[in-house]
TrEMBL record:
Protein source organism: Anopheles arabiensis
Membrane topology listed for this record: Multi-pass membrane protein
Phylogenetic classification of the source organism: Eukaryota, Metazoa, Ecdysozoa, Arthropoda, Hexapoda
Enzyme Commission designation: 2.4.1.-
One Gene Ontology MF term: dolichyl pyrophosphate Man9GlcNAc2 alpha-1,3-glucosyltransferase activity
Transmembrane segments: 35-52, 148-166, 276-294, 341-362, 371-389, 395-419
Protein name: Alpha-1,3-glucosyltransferase
Amino acid sequence: MSGYTEEYIRQKLTEKLEATHVAGLKPPEMDTKTALPWVTIVAAGLFLRAAISLHSYSGQNQPPKYGDYEAQRHWQEVTVNLPVSDWYRNTTDNDPLYWGLDYPPLSAYHSYLAGLWARRWHNESYVALHESRGISTDQHKQFMRNTVLLLDVLLYLPAILYATYTVRKRLANDRSEVAEWASLTLAVLFPGQILIDNGHFQYNNASLGLCALAVVALLERRTLAGAVLFSLALNYKQMELYHALPFFFYLLRHCFTGSNKSSTVLERLTAGVSRLAVLGVTVLATFLVLWLPWLSSLEAAGQLVHRIFPVARGVFEDKVSNVWCMVNVLVKLRNFPNTTMALVCLLCTLLAVLPSGLHLLLQKASTIRSFLYSLAVTALGFFLFSFHVHEKSILLVALPVTLLLPLEPLAACWFLQIATFSMFPLLHKDGLTVPFVGLSLISLVNAALEEELKTIHAFSQKTYTPEQWAGESGP
């Protein structure tokens, strides 16, 4: 009666199911053809990370405070030996001048678990109170390096692969397999993250992995899951504030634009307020669970906030490629009060990032593509203008740029190379010059090869008439 044949209906249903499968973003079926490249990319990423782990680290054999390696180890010592209430307090056993814990609670919990691992399954001397300071044995170095590699395996690499894959499937126009493997490979082999976490020694892979999963959740329209994941990232490292405004504006807009357009203004407003309330309660509940041990008194909570926002440290750290480091060449900013500079930095940062955030909130048709670009722009604004920026903070800009690899392959690839180069003074100080050069060359050669393969692939897919062949093959 409808005029459609059974075969036509079956074909349309099949197409619809395939489209739904892509929209649901289920992981690709792992047959031999697709599994091998994924395994190869992950294996290459882990091999390079393990190779960099053999080199020196921040503060190696440099008393009295050593470096970031010792800071992370000392936090394990503090968390496994002191009660939770003393983790952020100045006590006789917790001197804040010797690497006082200054990351949010989730990072402290991670230090506690790593400290328990060291004490129970390795060597109690790794976290012995006071006596373990400056420990630098080969066995301890292997243990510490393995804690970073474990997070790479369990969190960062799956997150960055899934996020890059999702962005490409959702938004990229280039559907070739070569383009897919190119973006995934470049994301996994980004030299900056490898050199800082597996060389210099930090756990940026935890907060960056959580943030990448939060982006995926928003791509899949799972806003509450995205809010929880980003709250976890923010509670691991406070520098995730670099990404906070785009999340805030995107989720705020989503609350008030998800209603049925046939509803009345009052109904849409009521539904939006209801969604915003649920979102707010979800975020607050996440924070409450993580901050619970310090909410018994205002003094304890205030001390925690004071530790994670140390205004007294000054406007920037060492040789940072941001605005204040350049201005300091002409005007010595350290001569100004820290509170004054903090306010100046806050004002300049807001002026730099608010246009992007307001565009995300107020544009006629907000898209996840706009959200990704806003993440990159806002993070870069924070890096250039905010207070007490570290060299390593460029990794927070590099994350959204990495996710833009499927959309802006050339610009993103070069930005990641420049971001790595901007950290060279820090890496050189840590004795990581050779790994820096090696990883940079690998990344550049890989990018060049991928571009060549994409060109060959595009050429092979093009069809020619005999006349075109004659015209293009002539002198």
